[in-house]
Amino acid sequence: MGRTSGQVMSSGDAVDVAVGQRLRALRLARGLSLEKVAASTGVSIGFLSQVERGLSSPSLRMLALLADTLQTGLAGLFGSETEARDDAIVTREQDRPNLWLWRAGITKQLLTPSGTAGGLSLFRTVLEPKASTGDDSFSHDGEEAGLVLEGDLVLTVEDQTLRLATGDSFRFASRRPHRFGNPSATTRTVVLWVNAILPTLPA
Questions:
Q1: How many domains does one find in the chain?
Q2: Which of 188, 193, 141 lies closest to 169, judged by CA?
Q3: Can you tell me the distance from the alpha carbon of 125 to that of 198, in angstroms, rounded to the nearest whole number?
Q4: Residue 62 domain-assigned?
Q5: Does residue 141 share a domain with residue 110?
Q6: Taking Cα atoms as reference points, which of 63, 13, 20, 73 lies closest to residue 43?
């Protein structure tokens, strides 16, 4: 969904601008054209351009595709690579960056240092009532696992739809098509979510 130039920017629009700037910086740093990114992700050049300019909101599915193409995990979309140190161990609560998918009602807070070289990222994922990643499943590199801290989670992995309650946990290969959502119309869902990019073994 786009925004016309005459509209006053909301907090959600500001998030879109920040995400778009980050995506453009990563694309340029990798030496990739919009055409190459579009061909890799199956997303139109026009829509990618709108996302980079903060005029459209990317879905979590699209962000996962872009993260793969830009050779970074989802954690790489949080803040600037130059802000983090490779030897960082602790992330203070007040320093945790957020990725707010405001149209979907999902917030992912990065609990591990951003921009570091490691392939393991830990998120606090909050789904507002009835929030979801949408009807279309998506897949990306790596593996993921999680623990439901509050509420319920409906997780679909390929042809399996599973309902998890507080205290339930999960794990699956991220290449398996998946989607998830909060089935409740009144309470939020909070998940401690792990994403890991698996190392490539030498041939």
A1: 2
A2: 193
A3: 21
A4: yes
A5: yes
A6: 63
